[in-house]
Amino acid sequence: MALISEYEEEESGTKPSSSAASSPPAQPSTFTATFDPSNPLGIVEKLFDFLAAESDYLSKDAAEKEIAAVVKAAKEKRKRKEEAAEREKAAAAAKAAESNKRLKEEEKEKKKKPEKEEEKGARASTVPNKGNGLDMDNYSWTQTLQEVTVLVPVPHGTKSRFVVCDIKKNHLKIGLKGQPPILEGELYKPIKVDDCYWSIGMVSTEDQNTISVLLTKHDQMEWWKSLVKGGPEIDTQKVEPENSKLADLDPETRQTVEKMMFDQRQKQMGRPTSDEIQKQDILKKFMAEHPEMDFSRAKIN
C-alpha cells in the first residue's frame, strides 16, 4: 500500500540571514514512499532520510524530543481509539444481553399468562345452584340443555300490564314500567325467540309475585356459563343434569349428553376424554399391527 504525503519545509524559531533574505522562499517538497506492513520502520527511516536531505530539522537540539512527543501522542491516540472501540463493543454486548434477557422474560410471562387467566377464570366461576344456574340478589336462573328459566321476584299485587319483558335473539330486558330494569344484558348464547315466553304468578310467600321467563336455547348441546355476558359465571364442569331428563331424550341426543358428562368427569380427575381414549386405542392397534416399526421416539399429540 502506497502512502503519499506532502511536506512543506519550515524553519521555525530561526532568523533568516541577510543572504537568505535575498533568496527566493523555499518551495514545498514531495515525499513518496511505499509502506511494507512486515517492516513498519522502513517508511520511518525513509522519512528521516528525506528530512535530513531536504532540511536541517534533525540538527535541532529539540528534534529528538519533539519526534518522541509526536510518537507518544500517536500511541495515546491509538490507545484511546482502541479503548473507545472496546467500550462500544462492551456496550453492544450488554445491550444484546439485556435484550435477550427481556425477550426471555416476555416469553416466560406469555407462558404464565394463559395459566393465570385459567386460574382467574376458575376463581371467578361459582358452583351452580340445584337448577344448574345461579341465584342472584334480585333474580335467579336455572337451565337444562334445551332451556333457561329466569325467575324475577316483584312486589305482591304486580299485574302483567306493569311488566316490561323484552326478549330478543341475543338480548333480554326484564323490569317494571317507570323503573330501572331489574335485569338487562346480552345473552350468553342466542335463543329461539318464537319458542320463548314469560308469565307472572304467585310464589310461596304472600308478599311477592314472580316473573317467570322461559328461554329456548338455539344450541341445545351446550351448558351456559352465565345468563348474560359479563355476569357471574358458573363452573359448568360441576353441572349435574337430572338422570330422569336423559330418559326423555332421543337416543342420539342422549348419547351426546352422556359423552359430555363423561368427558367432564374425566377432565375433573385429570384423565383422558372419550376422544383421547379412542385415539389411544387406534394407536395401540396400529402399533400391534406393525411390530416392525419403531415408536420409541414418536411423539403423539
What does this structure look like?
By secondary structure, the protein is an alpha+beta fold. It is built from six helices and ten strands. It has a five-stranded antiparallel sheet with strand order 3-4-5-10-9, with no helix packed on it. The protein is elongated, with a radius of gyration of 47 Å. Residues 1-21 have low confidence and may be disordered. Keywords: Cytoplasm. Pfam families: CS. This is CS domain-containing protein.
User: Can you count the helices?
Assistant: 6
Write down the secondary-structure element order: EHEHHEEEEEEEEHHH
User: What is the C-alpha radius of gyration, as a whole number of Å?
Assistant: 47 Å
The end-to-end distance, rounded to whole angstroms, is 65 Å
Low-confidence stretches: 1-21
Strand content: 15-25%
**Strand order across the largest sheet:** 3-4-5-10-9
Structural class comes to alpha+beta
Helix content: 25-40%
How would a textbook summarize the main sheet?
Answer: 5 strands, antiparallel
Mean pLDDT: 81
Find the count of extended strands (DSSP E, 2+ residues).
Answer: 10
Shape: elongated
Secondary structure: elements and pairs:
Layout (H helix, E strand, L loop, with lengths): L1 E6 L10 H4 L7 E6 L5 H15 L8 H62 L9 E2 L4 E4 L3 E9 L7 E5 L3 E6 L6 E4 L10 E6 L5 E9 L26 H4 L4 H18 L5 H16 L12
Antiparallel strand pairs: 1-2, 3-4, 4-5, 5-10, 6-7, 7-8, 9-10
